[in-house]
Amino acid sequence: MFEECGEVIMRIEEAAEVDIADDRPVAMRWREAHWRVIDTPPPLQEEPDWMMHPLITHPPEGWRMGWRFTARSDADGAVCTIDAVRTLTGWELRNVWA
């Protein structure tokens, strides 16, 4: 399933479904596979100029644009670290490392 992931980062912009529990990601569905989060994800907190009104100079305290987490595929056991970003239409994966 993940021969293209290898040890090289994949920069992608692909939609995924991310399941959140207790304010953290716990699983996702991506490329027709179910993945389980296997670590404690840190939040991604970049300045979200594409989501904020021009008069807002800083994101609200506690705001996070997404998560970086390590997940294992239920299909074949592949493990990758993933940046998942919340967009206006759902979740999008941006970076994947093996």
List low-pLDDT spans: none
Rg is 14 Å
Assembly state of the chains shown: single chain
Task: Please work out how many helical segments DSSP would assign.
Answer: 0
Query: What number is the mean pLDDT?
Result: 82
| Major pleated sheet | 6 strands, antiparallel, barrel
- Order the strands across the largest sheet as they lie in space: 1-2-3-5-6-7
Give a count of the beta strands, DSSP E runs of length 2 or more: 7
Verbal overview:
- The chain is mainly β.
- Helices cover 0% and strands 52% of the residues.
- It has strands at 10-21, 24-30, 33-37, 43-44, 66-73, 79-87, 90-97.
- A six-stranded antiparallel β-barrel has the order 1-2-3-5-6-7.
- A hairpin with a 2-residue loop joins strand 1 (10-21) and strand 2 (24-30).
- The termini are close together.
- The mean pLDDT is 82.
Descriptive labels:
about 100 residues; mainly beta; 6-stranded antiparallel β-barrel
Question: How would you summarize this macromolecular structure in one to three sentences?
Answer:
This protein is mostly beta strands and 98 residues long. It is built from no helices and 7 strands.
